[in-house]
């Protein structure tokens, strides 16, 4: 939950400009919501790398890993699990 | 010859051939041309008069292409607008050109109430659903239209009512085909008026130097509303080629997969497209035996990136190109054979275009003397819509004044040094920001950079570099300055280096340097 909350805060702060009124479910696709563009996704990647100490490989840059708060959180968990 | 004739002619030659591939839909030339005829007739029934302006505020899709050709076949003028425009931006454009009709995607509908209240010229809004053309017609039916004036219609309704009809098209070559609003990097948007002749001439020239044929398949990641994206549409329609419309470029690996699956032969991008491909995609793990060529315009590719791309895609030609919306898209290109010999150059004029480098007093420069790029050719715009003064500033007796500063070598190859306004005047030196940016981009840890001049009491302007690093560790301002010092005279080394997560850009991907100046200025 902590990871999800931290990702949510980052997305709201950086892509919704702090607007908490915009509904954003954990499963909502950033792509379908038009929330994030091609440079935005690179920001998200930098954020999770820095915040959670993981390395996102070029092959990992896919919507199944990155395209919702839940997917990001699951991806971080998998990466952390693999690193242990 | 009209732009819409490209579609009609290709439909006669290749009726069953794929024109567009979008998600899992394939639209043939025959089907697109017939449907565009239906739409043109429907628009005339709706009261559209030849010469009227019609806004297209839609993302890349078969429906955009249908609206584009349908409006032109009705003799009216296409005004493409980014679907990411704010309500204010869209209303400003529609009012400026006094548009009578507007096509929108469903996704744009929610911002429309704010637009409609301030656009009295609009009589019809036509809502397109993805699936209005093609076999999966019911995939995204429109459920509800907002109330109020102007009258709303759906694209589906109009097509049903006008099926099989053909509207006579009275447009001539010299009539307007499009008004493209420039992105406004410098000042408010200007409506670039392009005639059928302008667009046809440019498309014919591009087809010639890229040697496009009906076997070509282009991977489209650039928006069609952008003149570079528009040129992909016109050129492929002309030769009977295929456009694979990528949804966007957020996940470059998916685009790479699609390119491989569809066997695309061409890929077009702007500098940030290639920066993302090189730095944040798995491109090194792919091989593209079918990929014949890449094109880049909309800004310079650094020699380091160009070299790296060449190494990764050894069998693929790289065309570096230069142009302006005011020139329908393209003015020059660097042939792949000159890629190394003339690294850093934007090449020579494309067929049908003449370019001179001129001094402020309009006299021609001698080789290697920096002056303004001035262009002549059938592709040069008619002027800015409703802006006689702005038009006379750039369209002069000697041609189109581009505002871009460059020099030409003894063989006629052109090298851009920056925009007129991008010169930094520091300590009495006149410095092109681009030269410094290229030096910094030679550092493999740098993703993107923008160099601007900022007010300085002593120097007049001091140089600041805004840098986006690939990885934040292992790079500091001193490394950037050291890199510049190794490559440039000392007066060109940035005084200040600011690291950023991303650079502010216009929708079409140009860096907003004015905004950077405000950040620190």
Detailed description of the structure:
The complex is a heterodimer of chains A (84) and B (521). Chain A has helices at 2-15, 38-52, 63-66, 69-83. By secondary structure, chain A is an all-alpha fold. Chain A has one domain (2-83): Orthogonal Bundle (Non-ribosomal Peptide Synthetase Peptidyl Carrier Protein, Chain A). In chain A, α1 runs antiparallel to α2 (38-52). Chain B has 521 residues and is of the alpha/beta class. Chain B is built from 15 helices and 27 strands. In chain B, the strands form six sheets. Chain B has a nine-stranded mixed beta sheet, with helices on both faces. In chain B, strands 4-3-5-6-7 form a five-stranded parallel beta sheet. Chain B starts with a helix and ends with a helix. The interface between A and B is medium-sized, with 19 and 21 residues.
In short:
The complex is a heterodimer of chains A (84) and B (521). Helix content of chain A is 57%, strand content 0%.
Protein traits:
A: about 80 residues; Non-ribosomal Peptide Synthetase Peptidyl Carrier Protein, Chain A; 4 helices; B: about 525 residues; alpha/beta; Rossmann fold; 3 domains; nine-stranded mixed β-sheet; five-stranded parallel β-sheet
Q: Name the CATH class of chain A.
A: Mainly Alpha
Assembly state here? heterodimer
Helix content of chain A: 55-70%
Number of strands of chain B: 27
């Amino acid at each position: 939950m902590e990871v999800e909350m931290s990702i949510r805060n980052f997305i709201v702060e950086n892509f919704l400009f702090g607007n908490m009124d915009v509904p954003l479910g954990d499963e909502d696709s950033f792509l379908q919501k038009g929330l994030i563009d091609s440079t935005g996704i690179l920001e998200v990647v930098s954020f999770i790398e820095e915040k959670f100490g993981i390395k996102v490989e070029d092959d990992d840059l896919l919507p199944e890993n990155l395209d919702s708060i839940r997917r990001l959180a699951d991806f971080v968990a998998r990466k952390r699990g693999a690193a242990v | 010859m009209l732009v819409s004739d490209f579609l009609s002619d290709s439909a006669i030659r290749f009726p069953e051939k794929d024109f567009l591939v979008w998600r899992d839909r394939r639209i043939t030339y025959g089907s697109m041309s017939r449907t565009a005829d239906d739409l043109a007739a429907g628009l005339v029934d709706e009261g559209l008069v030849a010469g009227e302006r019609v806004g297209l505020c839609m993302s890349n899709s078969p429906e955009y292409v249908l609206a584009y050709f349908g409006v032109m076949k009705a003799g009216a003028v296409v005004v493409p607008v980014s679907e990411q425009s704010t309500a204010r931006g869209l209303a400003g454009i529609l009012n400026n050109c006094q548009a009578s009709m507007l096509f929108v995607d469903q996704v744009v509908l929610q911002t429309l109430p704010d637009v409609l209240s301030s656009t009295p010229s609009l009589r019809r809004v036509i809502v397109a659903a993805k699936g209005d053309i093609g076999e999966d017609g019911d995939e995204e039916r429109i459920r509800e239209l907002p109330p109020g004036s102007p009258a709303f219609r759906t694209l589906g309704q109009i097509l049903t009512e006008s099926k099989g009809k053909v509207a006579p098209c009275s447009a001539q070559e010299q009539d307007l085909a499009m008004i493209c609003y420039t992105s406004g990097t410098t000042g408010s948007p200007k409506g670039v008026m392009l005639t059928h002749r302008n667009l046809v001439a440019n498309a014919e020239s591009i087809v010639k130097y890229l040697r496009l044929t009906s076997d070509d398949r282009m991977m489209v990641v650039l928006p069609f509303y952008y003149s570079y994206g528009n040129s992909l549409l016109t050129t492929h329609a002309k030769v009977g080629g295929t456009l694979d419309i990528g949804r966007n470029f957020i996940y470059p690996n998916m685009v790479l997969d699609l390119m491989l699956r569809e066997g695309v032969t061409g890929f077009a991008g702007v500098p940030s497209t290639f920066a993302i491909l090189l730095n944040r995609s798995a491109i090194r793990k792919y091989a593209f035996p079918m990929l014949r060529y890449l094109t880049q315009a909309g800004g310079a590719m650094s020699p380091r990136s160009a070299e790296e791309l060449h190494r990764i895609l050894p069998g693929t030609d790289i065309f570096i190109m230069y142009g302006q919306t005011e020139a329908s898209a393209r003015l020059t290109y660097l042939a792949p054979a000159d890629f190394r010999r003339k690294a850093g150059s934007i090449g020579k004029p494309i067929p049908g275009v003449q370019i001179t480098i001129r001094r402020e007093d309009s006299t021609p420069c001698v080789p290697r003397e920096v002056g303004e790029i001035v262009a002549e050719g059938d592709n040069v715009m008619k002027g800015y819509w409703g802006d006689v003064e702005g038009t006379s500033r750039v369209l002069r007796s000697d041609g189109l004044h581009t505002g871009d500063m460059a020099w030409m070598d003894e063989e006629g190859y052109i090298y851009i040094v920056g925009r007129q306004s991008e010169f930094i005047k520091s300590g009495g030196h006149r410095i092109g920001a681009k030269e410094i940016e290229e030096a910094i981009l030679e550092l493999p840890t740098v993703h993107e950079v923008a160099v601007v001049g900022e007010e300085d009491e002593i120097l007049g302007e001091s140089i600041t570099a805004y840098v986006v690093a690939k990885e934040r560790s292992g790079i500091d301002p001193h490394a950037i300055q050291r890199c510049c010092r190794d490559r440039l005279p000392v007066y060109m080394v940035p005084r200040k280096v600011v690291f950023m997560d991303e650079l502010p850009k216009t929708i079409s991907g140009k860096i907003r340097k004015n905004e950077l100046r405000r950040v620190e200025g």
